[in-house]
Amino acid sequence: MKISTTLQSTRIKITEPSISDIYFIEQDETNNRFYVTSDNGYNGFEGEGFSSLVSAIHNVNKMIKNYFNDRCEENPKGW
């Protein structure tokens, strides 16, 4: 895996070149919690969010690690 983390103006963008999904972490100004969304339809704002940025990043890394398994596919070689 080659996870890239990019700081944008109001959110953090996390990508991995082997998958088509792009994940974003945003902080809600009303409750200061961190929420994960993706351009593929995942919407963490429907949940409780994360109390720390580190927890949110860890969750996205776990989602990327399990990306192929969650889709009942084999991981690419070297994953």
What's the helix count? 2
Largest sheet: 4 strands, antiparallel
Please count the beta strands (DSSP E, at least 2 residues each): 4
Distance between the termini: 5 Å
What is the general shape?
elongated
In the sheet with the most strands, the strands line up as 1-2-3-4
Uncertain parts: none
Comma- or semicolon-separated keywords:
79 residues, alpha+beta, four-stranded antiparallel beta sheet
Write up this protein.
With 79 residues, this protein is an alpha+beta fold. It is 22% helix and 24% strand. The chain has a four-stranded antiparallel beta sheet with strand order 1-2-3-4, with helices on one face. A hairpin with a 3-residue loop joins strand 1 and strand 2. The radius of gyration is 13 Å and the shape is elongated.
Task: Give me a quick take on this structure.
By secondary structure, this protein is an alpha+beta fold. It is 22% helix and 24% strand.
Topology:
Layout: E1 4-7, E2 11-15, E3 23-27, E4 34-38, H1 53-65, H2 67-70
Antiparallel strand pairs: 1-2, 2-3, 3-4
